[in-house]
Design goal:
single chain; 6 strands; mainly alpha; three-stranded antiparallel β-sheet; 178 residues
Length: 178
Amino acid sequence: MATSENWAQDVITCDLCVKPSQQFCNSCQVSLCNVCVHKHREEFQSLSHDVVPFLHRKIQLALPECREHPGHRCEAHCNNCNQPACIKCILSGPHKGHAAEELSKTHESKVQKIIKETQLITTKIIPNYQKKDVEIETTMSEAKLNMITLKKKMLDSSNCGIKKLITSLIGWTLSVNL
């Protein structure tokens, strides 16, 4: 991450190699150096590519290529199979008759679900565990104090018992020797 001290030093590199990127494929959402633009287009020649200078890039949802119909991008999401599908798949292919929605809507609903779950975690779950952590620490501190007190009592009673034992031993030895 760039900080206020070194932001000018950070370089965005090509997603296919380690060279600085000057281009961006809006269709695939990948950063490219001038050398890799041709390689990228050839590797995915069945798809259309909108390669622009990096500063003119558009950040958007990258639609995957259909596995069944090369050259087509998956613009839909099959709800039955829980996977992306192109229009041909929905109309006459393996997802014909299945419930489907726009892939962007599926993406947005998943983003909203993540946001909702993150809020639940930060507002309820984490505070609950922090409260429990404090309770456990308090209980442990009390237990340590109880152990220290008990240890003192045991030492005091054993010292008292040892003193009595020593006194009686001394008394016995004196009576035996006399």
